[in-house]
Design a protein that fits this description.
single chain, about 220 residues, alpha/beta, Rossmann fold, two-stranded antiparallel ribbon, 7 helices
């Protein structure tokens, strides 16, 4: 699918940024996501290899929602380092269009200033704290992106993430949830729980070769 086919379906300002980034053609998973309701507010579970374009799927939904004045976007990541990396990347691309915030600090603060921001990047622990503090801006969230959603199966982080998703879906009736992962053992089951359309694709930018290393040599399978 050519990016030009999204003209008129996404805000012109977002289209211009993507063109400036050199994006002319959508990758397979991105095209599948568009065809399965990404731009119509459908919940999606995206299970594709690393570097296959999952982040752009999230951006198309979140940035479109903000520019259309439908609501804020919250991007949940498991680690502070990853949150900082995403913040820098999104600021580089979208600082002229959006007010982007990074919230990974004090777990005992409601951070009322976040009401002035459109795109908010958080760790799951921080978002859990914000919900417990009844942050009023949460009612304005339209899109929630959960990066590394397979961590639902993690003994330490999984329970918090599961409660977060359940609480947000209860509080926000028109919420669009987008889960991203390269490794999900039970994608069909998880998609059903999320009431989401499932996107599975094996395309990757660099072909993966399997081999066995022994005695200084690699024998490819």
């Amino acid at each position: 699918m050519k990016l030009e086919e999204l003209k008129g379906r996404i805000p012109q300002k977002l289209f211009s940024v993507l063109k400036k980034e050199g994006i002319d053609t959508l990758r397979p998973a991105q095209e599948k996501a568009v065809r399965k309701g990404l731009l119509e507010g459908k919940n999606l579970l995206v299970c594709t290899p690393t570097a296959s374009g999952k982040t752009l799927i999230a951006e198309l939904a979140g940035v479109s929602s903000i520019l259309k004045r439908e609501g804020k976007c919250v991007y949940i990541v498991p680690l502070k380092a990853l949150a900082s990396e995403k913040f820098k990347d999104f600021k580089r691309k979208y600082s002229s269009l959006l007010r982007i915030a990074l919230s990974i600090g004090d777990l005992d603060s409601a951070e009322p200033h976040l009401i002035d921001y459109d795109f908010i990047i958080v760790t799951s622990e921080k978002l859990d704290s914000l919900i417990r503090h009844h942050s009023p801006w949460l009612r304005d969230v339209k899109v929630v992106i959960i990066d590394e959603i397979h961590l639902l199966d993690d003994a330490s982080r999984g329970p918090t993430l599961e409660i977060l998703i359940t609480t947000l879906r209860h509080l926000l009736k028109n919420l669009q949830v987008i889960g991203l992962s390269a490794t999900i053992g039970n994608p069909e089951e998880l998609a059903e729980w999320l009431n989401a359309n499932l996107i599975i694709d094996n395309w990757r930018p660099v072909k993966l070769h399997q081999g066995v290393y022994f005695d200084g040599k690699v024998e490819f399978i």
